[in-house]
Specification:
Blueprint lengths: L3 H12 L4 E6 L6 E3 L4 E5 L6 E2 L10 E6 L2 E6 L6 E3 L2 E2 L4 E2 L5 E4 L2 E6 L5 H13 L9 H18 L3 E8 L2 H8 L1 H18 L6 E6 L2 E7 L3 H17 L2 E3 L2 E3 L3 E7 L8 H16 L5 E3 L1
Parallel strand pairs: 3-4, 17-18
Antiparallel strand pairs: 1-2, 1-11, 3-5, 5-6, 6-9, 7-8, 7-10, 10-11, 12-14, 12-17, 13-14, 15-16
Helix pairs in contact: 4-5
C-alpha cells in the first residue's frame, strides 16, 4: 500500500517542478525535458537543449520561450513545420497544459510548472528504459544513448569511450552460491560503479547477463582506460557478502574509443567487445584497450 506521506511528498515535489516537454512519440520515448528560462531550442543539432536524432527534424526546428510566466512556442523556419494540436503554426503560440507539439514525426506533450503528471511520465520512462534487476539502462536504451552521443561527438569533434565489462567466472558464482547470490553480485557491482566511479553525465547499461557497457562522453582513450582500471580495482577490493558468505569477485574490461574510420557507433561496441575477449583470454581481472 502506498503511504500517505509518500503521496504528499510527490505532490510537494511536483509543485517545485519546472514546466517541461515529455516525448510521447519518438525516441527517447517518455523522456522529460525541462523548459529552463529564458528559452530552449528543439532540433537535430547536437548543440541545442532538446536534441532529437531524426531526419524529419531540422537542425534548429522550434524554440520555446519563457515570458511572463507563459511558455511560447515558435517555429524556426523548419522544413517540415511545427504543429500544436495538429495545427501548423505560422506565428508564436502560447501553450496550454496538455498541448501536443509535433516536429516532424516527433511529438511532445507540454506540462506546466507544478504538474504531478510529470512524475507519472518519469516512472513510465524508467520502466521502459531500465533493467529491472540492476536499475541501470537496458541494452536498447543504452544503444539509443550511444547513437546520440556518437552523433554529437562527430558534429563537434569530441571524444567518447565505451567500456565493456564482464564479471569473471559468474557461472561458477551462481553454481556455488545460488542465483540469488548472483543477483546480489550484479546489483552491488552496478551500485559501486554508479555511486563511486562514474560522473553524472556517464551512462551504464546492462548489455546481457553479467556483461555491462559504460559510455564516457568527452573522454579520450587514456582517461577512459583509467576509469576502467578504477572500476576493476573497486570491484576487486570490495567485500561482497551474501548470507554471511564472502564471495570474491573480479571483472574483466575492454575499452575502445571513437575513430575517424567509424561509420556506425556499433563499431565502437565491437572493438570494446574484442578488447574484453582479449582481457579474459589473457587471464581475466584486467583491462585491455583497443
Amino acid at each position: 500500500m502506498v503511504e500517505e506521506s509518500e503521496i504528499q511528498e510527490k505532490i510537494s515535489r511536483a509543485k517545485r517542478t519546472q514546466p517541461s516537454l515529455v516525448l510521447i512519440a519518438g525516441k527517447p520515448l517518455g523522456k522529460r525535458f525541462p523548459i529552463t528560462p529564458p528559452q530552449i531550442v528543439i532540433g537535430r543539432s547536437s548543440d541545442v537543449e532538446v536534441s532529437i536524432d531524426s531526419p524529419h527534424i531540422s537542425r534548429k526546428h522550434a524554440i520555446l520561450k519563457v515570458q511572463d510566466g507563459k511558455i511560447i512556442v515558435e517555429d524556426l523556419g523548419s522544413t517540415n513545420g511545427t504543429f500544436v494540436n495538429d495545427a501548423k503554426i505560422g506565428h508564436p503560440v502560447i501553450l496550454k497544459e496538455g498541448d501536443h507539439i509535433r516536429c516532424g514525426k516527433t511529438i511532445f506533450k507540454f506540462l506546466p510548472k507544478g504538474s504531478v503528471e510529470a512524475f507519472y511520465h518519469e516512472d513510465i520512462h524508467g520502466m521502459a528504459h531500465t533493467d529491472g534487476l540492476t536499475k541501470v539502462f537496458n541494452r536498447m536504451y543504452f544503444l539509443d544513448c550511444l547513437r546520440i552521443e556518437y552523433a554529437r561527438a562527430r558534429n563537434l569533434g569530441g571524444n567518447l569511450c565505451v567500456i565493456m565489462l564482464d564479471i569473471d567466472h559468474f557461472k561458477d558464482i551462481n553454481d556455488t552460491y545460488g542465483h540469488q547470490a548472483g543477483d546480489y553480485i550484479l546489483q552491488e557491482t552496478c551500485r559501486i560503479i554508479k555511486t563511486n566511479i562514474l560522473r553524472s553525465e556517464d551512462q551504464i547499461g546492462r548489455y546481457g547477463g553479467e556483461e555491462f557497457t559504460i559510455l564516457l562522453t568527452d573522454t579520450p582513450l587514456h582517461e577512459g582506460s583509467d576509469v576502467a582500471e578504477r572500476v576493476r580495482k573497486a570491484i576487486e577490493s570490495y567485500s561482497f557478502e551474501f548470507e554471511d558468505k564472502k564471495i570474491d569477485v573480479t571483472i574483466s574490461a575492454g575499452i575502445a574509443t571513437l575513430t575517424e574510420e567509424d561509420d556506425d557507433p556499433v563499431e565502437i561496441i565491437r572493438r570494446a567487445d574484442e578488447a574484453l575477449y582479449d582481457a579474459k583470454r589473457s587471464g581475466r581481472n584486467r583491462v585491455v584497450a583497443k
